[in-house]
Amino acid sequence: MLKQLLSLALMLALPFAVMASALDELMPRPKQIVPNKAFSWTYNEAEIKEIAPDPEVMKHGDEAYGLLINQKGVQWYGNKRYAMATLRQLVDLGQGKVPCGTIRDWPTLPYRGMLHDTGRNWQPLSQLLMQLDWLSKYKFNCFQWHITDNHGWRLESKKYPELSHPDNLDRTDNFYTQEEFKALIAYAKTLGITVIPELDVPGHSETMRRAFGVQKMDEPKMRQIIADLFDELMTLLDPEVTPFIHIGSDEVKAHERVPGEWLTQWVKQIEAKGFKVIAWGPGQHPPHLSKPLIRQYWMGRQVGRPTNEPYFDSQSSYYINHVDPLEMLAAACYQKPCLTGPVENHLGAIFAVWHDDALGKPWDILTMNPVFPAMVLYSDNFWNGREKDDMRYYGNLPAPTDPAFALAADLERRTLAQKPFFKGLPFDYYPQTQMRWRMAETAETKPFNELPWGERVIAQGTIYPQHFFFGQTNLTNGKSGCVWLGTVVNSDADKTVDLIADCMNYSRSDGRARDAALVQGKWNAKGAEIYLNGKPVPPPQWVQPGLSGWGTREKPLVDEPWMVRKPLKVQLKKGRNELLIKLPRKGWKWSATCFFPNAEGLTFEAPSVK
After folding, report:
1. Tell me: the pLDDT tens digits for 169-179?
2. Is residue 297 part of a domain?
3. pLDDT band for position 392 (50/70/90)?
């Protein structure tokens, strides 16, 4: 009888343990959670009721909300969309059983968004709408639509149809009709998402110059043509729904610069119709404005910013065409969005998908760039902000003994809890914080146990001795010109396992131009090597080795990013296994990715320090 009672108690306790964890797996994490672990509620739509709002919560703005969950049902107040998004997550995480408790929540930043560059690489409307659905689930409220660039003016113009003529488009003849453009904005509105349309002028203008037969953007006729295009755009918009228009203005080359008064005219023209104007920073500034222009900063996090200037933050670590999935964890944990200036000028943060190189097919932008992991990871960063910005962890996580490491382990756990929801979609984030590496700085080849291992333990799957965006020291000053990364893998049995490894970490924007070409039979042209128990781990059979230089950007990537390759099969022996990477420093990215996507039965320890 006692045994039966104990078994029953265990059966009853187990669901509550699972349900209690659901509150701690929400993304983004709510500001305040008070759990009641003793009880749960079974989902029933009829038992969801609206109640009067809590003034202390609602003083944080119209995106604030609250949930009160007990055995009899759910009471909510404030922003219904976000309250229901949180409730749906709890239902999914608990498989229909929702833990009881109280949630009080609100965002730190007004706007939280994603940018897609469809000027270079067009995506079907259905593919964009699907991504808006997922943005909404994670409480993003902004979609920046970079709709024109060198390769295409992707928005139909009825006044200047030559812009969309196949002769003037590159990579694909596709563009969005005005009806499709309005349809996306209308659909986004139903999800609570503000669209920021961007017509990028006067830079990034190859399509425009082809269409109008000009070599330089300061040809007199271009002033009125661009004014007409902004006027036409505004006929498709309602400033109550789409309050911002982005005019680009970054990376303006010498033959694209226009007189400053042209820019000022276009800004005033747009503002006269009730819209707010955004331009990139750094970029060409329109002079003599009566108030500061809204800026969107993209050049790292060291750029000086006027204290009176409202801005959006798209710092380097938010450019996911350059960073890899596992690398984003450090940015999501330790990089503070909207770092400078008074809080009232912090408009929000936008992560960007700039796949500058040509795509093989539109879906490749989702398989070669960590779009969906970014939505989950940056949802927490953008919704809650961060107390401080820590450059020590730019591209690398703290050591496991550092108290700051707990944030990374927690954010990873909650991200992985969301991963099953993305079934059928590319979600290339895997557990990495259980890894335990050490680094040895030497160009000399020595046995595993004789390498001069450093004291610091590295717990991650993508490792940068130095990060490519910033030259400050991360793990090394680089004087040796070569490092070794080593870990001990303890296996519970002899078995064949999957290993994901990469020593190039190709950017999807001019990666070949910045680094040496892949060499058949080599991990990279820099001399990288990988060993397991003293034996070389051969690299994949590259599909297109030998490609390098700026001229290859029209040759789509195929298997260069590790996210689109099948894992390698390697043999582990029961007990101790030594995994070693030789990583010489050359070129743009000095990094390695190496981890086991399924680490069941594996534990990791750092090499011993002599």
Report:
1. 999 999 999 99
2. yes
3. confident
Domain end (from 70, 105, 140) = 105
The tokens 């990374």 sit on which residue?
408
Residue with tokens 């709890």: 90
Residues 160 and 232 reside in one and the same domain: yes
> Beta strand pairing status for 152-153 and 148-149?
antiparallel
Q: Is the dihedral of CA 307, 312, 316, 318 positive or negative?
A: positive
Q: What does residue 31 show for φ and ψ, rounded to 5 degrees?
A: -65, -40
Evaluate whether residue 417 is within a structural domain.
no
Q: Is residue 232 part of a domain?
A: yes
- For 224-260, b/e burial (b = at least 16 CB within 10 A) is ebbeebbebbbeebeeeebebbbbbbbebeeebbbee
User: Would you give the distance in Å from CA 558 to the centre of its chain?
Assistant: 21
Nearest CA among 318, 598, 607 for reference residue 432: 598
Alpha carbons within 13 angstroms on the beta-carbon side of residue 479 total 1
Q: Which of 439, 427, 539, 521 is nearest to 482 (CA)?
A: 439
Per residue in 522-567, pLDDT tens?
999 999 999 999 999 999 999 999 999 999 999 999 999 999 999 9
My answer on whether 115 and 101 are in the same domain is no
Residues 516 and 578 in one domain: yes
> Per-residue pLDDT tens for 323-339?
999 999 999 999 999 98
Is 405 inside any structural domain? no
Confidence check: pLDDT of 306 > 80:
no
pLDDT at residue 17 tops 50: no
Over pLDDT 90: what percentage of the chain?
86
Give the dihedral sign, CA 236/239/242/248: positive
pLDDT tens column, 466-495: 988 876 667 988 888 999 999 999 999 999
DSSP-assigned letters across all residues of 316-353? GGGBTTTS-TTTHHHHHHHPPSS-SS-GGGEEEEEEEE
Q: Where a domain ends, among 52, 85, 105?
A: 105
